Amino acid sequence: CPYIHRWTDAFVGLSTCGRHMSAHRVSGALARALEGIPTGHALTAELMAHPGYPSVPPAGGCGEGPDAFSCSWERLHELRVLTAPTLRARLAQDGVQLCTLHDLDSKRPGEGVLGEATLETFLEPSPPCP
């Protein structure tokens, strides 16, 4: 198969999503995921988040219209935390490089440095529901 999907080494953020998300909690969760990793070894981690703008009924949602999740203010809170300079500064200080899943899929081991995600990455619309 010519298409190879790359999974991340770690999954973090179950304790940092929604109303609990803050720059401090996200950087702490990533730091715990990096504990014991030798210096210079790259580790990939997926951050659990669903940032976005709350749906306003009757529009939005997946399938039969908006649900409690799509209408939640917590999505906007996550968007604000993830796009704030505070979090980006903490991540840069910790040597964390943001990228998209596409960046991981397009790189094979040993092919150099991943491209940094831009602010627009966080603001892209979600794909349509199946």
From TrEMBL:
Cofactors demanded by this protein: Mg(2+)
Protein's UniProt keywords contain Protein biosynthesis: no
This protein's UniProt keywords: Carbohydrate metabolism, Hydrolase, Magnesium, Metal-binding
Protein family according to the UniProt entry: Belongs to the YdjC deacetylase family.
Species of provenance: Neovison vison (American mink)
Function: Probably catalyzes the deacetylation of acetylated carbohydrates an important step in the degradation of oligosaccharides.
Biological process annotations from GO: carbohydrate metabolic process
InterPro entries in the record: Glyco_hydro/deAcase_b/a-brl, YdjC-like
Listed name of the protein: Carbohydrate deacetylase
GO MF annotations in UniProt: deacetylase activity; hydrolase activity; metal ion binding
